[in-house]
Prior knowledge:
This protein has about 325 residues and is an all-alpha fold.
Amino acid sequence: xxxxxxxxxxxxxxxxxxxxxxxxxxxxxxxxxxxxxxxxxxxxxxxxxxxxxxxxxxxxxxxxxxxxxxxxxxxxxxxxxxxxxxxxxxxxxxxxxxxxxxxxxxxxxxxxxxxxxxxxxxxxxxxxxxxxxxxxxxxxxxxxxxxxxxxxxxxxxxxxxxxxxxxxxxxxxxxxxxxxxxxxxxxxxxxxxxxxxxxxxxxxxxxxxxxxxxxxxxxxxxxxxxxxxxxxxxxxxxxxxxxxxxxxxxxxxxxxxxxxxxxxxxxxxxxxxxxxxxxxxxxxxxxxxxxxxxxxxxxxxxxxxxxxxxxxxxxxxxxxxxxxxxxxxx
Length: 330
């Protein structure tokens, strides 16, 4: 028996509108929070990237620190590509930062897994007070960060409340069961990230769906892996038309994520068992957040020692253009 269109609208509209509101608020909060953190740090980020990337290990640690601070791996990697293009950073220095950014982005999933949406008003109220009463720019910027953090929590809370009725809808349950195919789930995650322009939003939605028991852990992991692939779209676009070194940096990010995801999808069942063992007794949403950390940390550790080899191959495949000689003076 099919549900009439009008009745279907009445069923799904009370879910879709709050879900859309929460998603828009979350995406706005991510950008607002990132802008506030960048304003606080100023030009120091460029200095840190150029000073603390002497080798792969320090590059990874720098990438982790800055991505955790800005809550956006795309911003950090795009900034790194720009520095490589400007020759403020070498291609080989950039590779450690790219790997570290993949680990740093997992901080947001750990934050999302905390059930603190009901406290969202507290950082927003404190932040608004600082923005209204602060006489120094730094206090105003700190207020912006707190307001952005509160809006992020509120957006997650709205989405979590919106999807609650979906558990009782057979059509939604059938569609969710289709995501049990990890390859299809990863494709959905990648597409969602390209559309939303935020892997954090995709991972956040996956955490919510797993927490509401609309998805099992393996399906949530597949969505998360897809989000890792979707986030490469921005960095590839940022490298188009740049120097060969900048283009190699974007291709390294894509290659690393793609190979990690292929390996993860092929080993998704044993990986899920490992996550359950590591996260014994944890809530489902925390299990997925831990899976995000474990997936990226293992991937970086597996590749870190091979960075010089990969760098050599990329430089051979895509060498720098020969510099044009300066015109002779007449």
